Amino acid sequence: MNIFSSLITSRMVATLSALVVIGIGCSAGIWQLNRAEQKIRLGESLAIKLAMPILNANTTDLSLELATERRITVRGRFLVEEAVWLENRPRPIPEGIANSAQAGFYLMMPLLLEDQKKVLWINRGWAPRNNLNRVELPPISTPESAVVIDGVGFSHPGKVYELGQQAEVMSKPRIEQNFDLSKETKLHSWNQLPFIVRESSSNKSDGLVRNWPLPTNGVDRHYAYAFQWFALALSGFLFWLITGFLKYRRERVVNGDRV
Predict the structure, then answer these.
(1) Cβ distance 136 to 112 under 8 Å?
(2) Residue 182 belongs to what domain range?
(3) Model confidence over 170-179: pLDDT tens digits?
(4) What is the b/e burial string over 153-186, where b = at least 16 CB atoms within 10 angstroms of the residue's CB?
(5) Do both 208 and 229 map to the same domain?
(6) Does the model's pTM come out above 0.85?
């Protein structure tokens, strides 16, 4: 039996523990690398689609497939009373700027398209929350007249983890964890476009932040996390190997064998 086989068979508990640490470290490291690769692919896809001609939601019958990640312009009036505030959303931080981890709301507001009986949900941007009073909403301004919104189409405004299913209530203001287009269709029974538009204009003085980060934001962080997980796996293997080798040497010395 060689030394490596001896280290395994004579220390089964230590070997199994090391395998667990190595397995967790490698799996988590690979997952982080995959997440980085996904963000890179999303960034490339978004860059290609953003270079395409702008779509007009007032004049073109847009499907979810056609509108996703495309630049869209639309004209209409906001239905202020039907707004939905999505809580527990981090402040949008552009790439290269330190994240302040400030929590707040995304303001989802339906827009009634001009000269049409169609509704398009707009993610108007982010606003800070009152940490002392959850239902006290931040002050924002909304034009009463028709507005032109420029943005990018998405299937949803992003999701956060929530426990259980929320009851379908219409209490005002509506503060929710996540946004579901199909749910809004059932609640309002209106003709609704099958996507949302994330507003892009960042120079409006309406109290909302729209410095949306790129999909590739955080790729370096994923690589750093992957390195840490792989380092953990390597450390687990080296600890098992070194302690086993030292134990093997001690046993050889006790038995009078030369090492």
Answers:
(1) no
(2) 54-161+169-212
(3) 667 889 989 9
(4) bbeebeeeeeeeeeeeeeeeeeebebbeeeebee
(5) no
(6) no
